[in-house]
Design brief:
This protein is mainly beta and 138 residues long. It is built from 2 helices and 9 strands. A 9-stranded mixed beta sheet has the order 5-2-4-3-6-1-7-8-9.
Amino acid sequence: MIRLMHGKLHRVTVTSANVDYVGSISIDPELMEKVGILPLEEVDVVNLNNAQRWSTYAIPGIRGSREICPNGGAALLCKPGDLLIIYAYEQCDRQDVMINGHRAKVLVADQKNNIADYFEQTLISNNDEIEFQERVGD
């Protein structure tokens, strides 16, 4: 088994940080759904402002709010206005990927966490080799 990225929220802006919540990161469910992140799914988070990295789990915030709110201890690793990258991964059978390829969904956000760009990154099987395509569609 190998672990491949399947969904990424790129350059989302922290809207609030709640140290008193029991952990996780609250994300507008519209953003989660666009890239296939499920509630309670483990995610890795990178803060582009200070290089902090952590793992947590995603929970849905308020639909349509464009909320990105690190909770619990993670709230101490960022502040409103910081830019984050949020990644979700899935376990894949290596042989299955070599035969069928793989697709990851990427959402790039603007300063208000609206969708500025959306694309897919794909691995395409090509005679026992894998070809990486940076962008597919718009």
